Amino acid sequence: MRAEIIAIGSELLTPYRLDTNSLYLTDGLNQVGIRVVHKAVVGDSLDDMRASFRQALDRADLVVACGGLGPTDDDRTREAVADLLGRKLELNEGVLRHIQELFRRLGRVMPEINRRQAMVPEGATVIPNPRGSAPGLWIETRGHIVILLPGVPAELRAMFEQEIRPRLTRLGHDERLFTRDLRITGLPESEVEQRVSPLYALYPDTETTILASPPGIQLHPRVWSRDPAQANQILDEMVKRMALALGEHLYSTDGEAMEEVVARALTENRATIAVAESCTGGLLAERLTNIPGSSVYFLGGVVCYSNELKSSLVDVPAELIESKGAVSPEVALALADGIRKRTGATIGVGVTGIAGPGGGTPEKPVGLVHIGIADERGPRERRFQFPGDRERIRMHASQTALDSVRRYFLFPRGRT
Amino acid sequence: MRAEIIAIGSELLTPYRLDTNSLYLTDGLNQVGIRVVHKAVVGDSLDDMRASFRQALDRADLVVACGGLGPTDDDRTREAVADLLGRKLELNEGVLRHIQELFRRLGRVMPEINRRQAMVPEGATVIPNPRGSAPGLWIETRGHIVILLPGVPAELRAMFEQEIRPRLTRLGHDERLFTRDLRITGLPESEVEQRVSPLYALYPDTETTILASPPGIQLHPRVWSRDPAQANQILDEMVKRMALALGEHLYSTDGEAMEEVVARALTENRATIAVAESCTGGLLAERLTNIPGSSVYFLGGVVCYSNELKSSLVDVPAELIESKGAVSPEVALALADGIRKRTGATIGVGVTGIAGPGGGTPEKPVGLVHIGIADERGPRERRFQFPGDRERIRMHASQTALDSVRRYFLFPRGRT
Q1: Helix axes B258-268, B390-410, angle to 10 degrees
Q2: Which CA distances in Å does B322 have to A223, B41, B318, B335?
Q3: Distance (Å) from the C-alpha of residue A357 to the closest C-alpha of chain B?
Q4: Selection from A345, A405, A343 nearest residue A380 by Cα
Q5: A260-410 topology per CATH
Q6: Cβ within 8 Å of residue B327, ≥6 positions away
Q7: How far apart are the C-alpha atoms of A255 and A195, rounded to whole Å?
Q8: Which of A112, A294, A389, B213 has the fewest Cβ atoms nearer than 10 Å?
C-alpha cells in the first residue's frame, strides 16, 4: 500500500516553519506496512488543495492530510476534499455537541464560527479528537482512503494512536517494516560506510540508510516482511556483523542516546560522576542531567570559564595554569581530579579546549580539546582536534567526554 | 512569480530525515520577489520524479529542485528532467574537467561513475559548484525556469548565493517580500494574538504569522511591495505599535536570541555574571556561553545538583536547605548571592526547581522554579510554575532566568 502525506497551511510555505508531523506519520504508517511515496506541502488556497489531493489520489492508495480543520476562513480542507470527491458537506450533530461541550467545560459559549468544524462530507467517518475541537475524518472513495487530521501535533498523535493505527492495522497488510537504529561515534561517515557496505550484498532484502547526525553517525537497516520472526532474524544477524565491523565505536543498537548509555553504565556500576568543564560551557552537565532520575548518579558540575574559578572551585594550581596554559593536558587532568576530590564522586571529568571562533593559535588551534577522566587511581587524559564551528566543536567535545565515560566502563582495565 | 520547491531523495521519505533546504530556499526566493506556492518531497524513482516535475511546471513559473545530482545510480534528477522536457543528456567537457581537477587535488583519479555528473541536458546552463563535484543546472523551457541544485546544504547555499540569487534578481521582479522578526517571552500565544491582532486591520497590506516556538512566541509581520521605502515604513510603524501592545515582554525586533540580548546588556553595562543552577542542570551556563566572546562577561557557573555541593561550592547554609528545602525562595536567594560572592561577578543568578518527572509534591509540584538574582545590594527572587515535560520546564526556566537578567538592566530601579 502506497501513501502520500499532505501538510496543509500557508505558514508551512514561509521560511519559518517546517512540517514535522510527516516524520511521525511516516513512522506510524511504516509500522503498519504502508510506504510513504510522496509528501506535499500546500497553502490555504482551495484550487491548490484540490489539485494536490487529486494528484495524491492518482499516486497513492492512502492520503493522509494534516491541517486546515480549524474554525476560521483559512481552514478549507473539509471543503476542498468534499468538492473534489463530489460530496456534500453536512452538519454532524454529534460533532457539534462535542464542540459545544468543550466550550461549556471552559465556561464559554461556542462561537458561531466553530460550527464549521461540525461540517462533515457525506459518507465520511468521524474520528473523535480527545484533545481539541477539530474532529478527524476518514473517507473511503473508489478503493482509496483519505484521512484528514488536525495539524496540532498533540491532537494528531492522540488520534493516530487511538483510532487511525488500529483501523489501518485491521486493513491487514501482511507486509510490515522492521528496523534497527545503530548509533556510532568517533568515526567519519565515509569510514562507517566503508566498514558496513560490504554487508549490504549479503542481505539483499534489506536497505540501509546512513545518516550523519553530528556529533555521530546513525545506521538504519530495514526490511519489509510478512514474517516478523524471519525479519528480526535477518536484522539481528546483520546488526551483529555490523557491530563486529564497527567495534567499540558502536554505542547503541536500539537508538539509545549517548546520555542514556552513560546513565545506564553509571547506574549499573553504582558510580557517581561530577564534571569540571570549560569550553563546553555547561553542555556536558546539561546532557548528563537531561535524563530523568539523573540526580542518583550526577553530583554536580562546575563551569569554570575564568582561570580564577578553575583554582578556587576545582583546586587547579594557579602556577599550573600559568606554566602550561588553561588549555593543556595538565589542566584537564587537574580539573578531572579536582572536581572528583571536591565532590567525592566515583568519577571526575575535566574538559578544557578552544571552541572559537577566537582564541586559537598555531600551537593551540580552534577545535583543540583535552578531556580528562579521574577515578580513585588518578586521572588520565586524551587530546582531540574537532572540526566545525563553535557549536559543532562544543557538541563534539561533550559527546567525546560522555563517550570517554562509556569507554571507562567498557574497558575496566583503564583504556579510555 | 510563483515557485515550487522539490526535494529529491528516498531518505526524505523515511521517519529519520526532513528536507530543511526548503526553508533556506524560501527565504532566498522571497527576498527576490518570488512566492513559494507548493513544496514536494519525492523519492528516487524516475516515474515519481517525472510526475512531480510535470505537476510543478503546471503550477509554478519556477521550479527549484535539490538532490539527486550525485554520481550513483540513485541520482536520477538529470535524467528525469531531460526525459520530461524531451532533451538529450550530453557530456559537458568543462564540467568533466572540473570534476577531474577536484579529484586530482585530492591526489586521486576520478572514478568512472563520476562521469554521470558531467552529463547535462541540451540547452541547460551549468551552475558551477565551488564546494563539490555536482554542478547545478539552470534550464529555461516554455516560459518556465527549472533550477537543479545539489542536496548538500553547504553546496546548495554557496551556489544559490553566488549564482542563483543574482540571476533571479536580474529577472527583475518589482515586488519583494519585506519582513520583521519579533521575539516575545512570558506571554502565552493566545495573549500575544489578542494584543496584536487589532492591528492587522490597520495594515491591510501586511500579513502576520504567529509562531509558538517554546519557550517563546515569534511574530513575523511581512509585506510584499515594489517600494522598499514604503514597505519599511509600514513595517516600522506596525512594529512600533506591536511593541506598545506587548510592552516589556517583547525582547527583540530583529530575531535576536535571548542569549544575544543578554550578552549585549552585560557588555554595554560592563557587567560580569556567574550562575548557580540546580534543575536547569547546566543549560543556563550553556546558553550564556553559546555566544562567541562570552568569556568577557561570563565568569563561570556551578551545577549543584546535590545539597552538599550547594553548601560546599556556593556556601548555601546546610541548615537553610534542611529547614526550607532545596527548592525554596530562600535557597534561590542564597545560590544567587553565594555564586556572586564566590566569583566576584557583578550579577549572580540562582535557579532551583523541580524539572520532573519525579520529585513533585502537592506543595511543590513539578514545574515549580525559583529564580534569584543578586547584585551588590543583595538578592531578589521570583517564583514560577512552568508547564510541560522535563525538557520544556528546563527550557522555560533557563529562558526566564535569562529574561530576569534582561529585565534587571531594563529596569535599573530593581524591578525584576
Answers
A1: 30
A2: 57, 58, 6, 15
A3: 7
A4: A405
A5: Maf protein (3.90.950)
A6: B278, B279, B352, B353, B354, B364, B368, B370
A7: 20
A8: A112
pLDDT at A187: 87
Q: Is B14 on the interface with A (CB under 8 A)?
A: yes
CATH architecture of A2-170: 3-Layer(aba) Sandwich (3.40)
Say if the Cβ atoms of A298 and B305 lie within 8 Å: yes
Nearest-Cα residue of chain B relative to residue A310 = B300
Nearest CA-CA distance, residue A248 and chain B, Å: 24
Chain B contact for A212, CB < 8 A? no
Name the CATH code of domain B258-410 (choices 3.20.20.60, 3.40.640.10, 3.90.950.20, 3.40.50.2300): 3.90.950.20
Residue A415 above 60 pLDDT?
no
* Cell matching residue B149: 541544485
Q: What's A176-252's CATH class? A: alpha beta
Alpha-helical (H) ranges within B271-389 are 283-288, 307-314, 318-324, 329-343
Average predicted confidence (pLDDT) for chain A? 93
User: Structural domain boundaries of chain B?
Assistant: 2-170, 178-252, 258-410
For B220, nearest residue in chain A (alpha carbons): A16
What's the whole-model pTM score? 0.83
Question: Which of B23, B211, B282 shows the shortest C-beta gap to A301?
Answer: B282
Other CB atoms within a 10 A radius of the CB of residue B16 amount to 17
**What is the per-residue pLDDT for B413?**
58
Name the architecture of domain B178-252: 2-Layer Sandwich (3.30)
State the Cα–Cα distance between residues A140 and A118, nearest whole angstrom. 19
Of the candidates A237, A164, A241, A177, the one whose C-alpha atom is nearest the C-alpha of residue A207 is: A177
- Which phi-psi region, left, alpha or beta, contains residue A94 (left: φ > 0; alpha: ψ -120 to 50)? alpha
Among B4, B25, B303, most A C-beta atoms within 10 A, so best to mutate, is B303
A63 contacts A147 by C-beta, under 8 angstroms: yes
Question: How far, in Å, CA of A386 to CA of A30, rounded?
Answer: 37
Q: Are the beta carbons of A30 and B15 separated by less than 8 Å? A: yes
Q: Residue A333 belongs to what H/E stretch?
A: helix A329-343
- Chain A residues touching residue B287 (CB < 8 angstroms): 282
Whether ipTM exceeds 0.85: no
Residue-level pLDDT, tens digit, chain B, 416 residues: 899 999 999 889 999 889 999 999 999 999 898 999 999 999 989 999 999 999 999 999 999 999 999 888 888 999 999 999 999 999 999 999 999 998 888 888 888 888 989 999 999 999 999 888 889 999 999 889 999 999 999 999 999 999 999 999 888 777 888 989 999 999 888 889 889 999 999 999 998 888 877 788 999 999 989 899 999 999 999 999 999 999 999 999 999 999 999 999 999 999 999 999 999 999 999 999 999 999 999 999 999 989 999 999 999 999 999 999 999 999 999 999 999 999 999 999 999 999 999 999 999 999 999 999 999 999 999 999 998 889 999 999 999 999 999 999 998 755 44
Q: Which of residues 381-400 of A touch B (CB under 8 A)?
A: 390-391, 394
Q: Which three cell numbers stand for residue B16?
A: 529519520
> Above 50 in pLDDT, residue A59?
yes
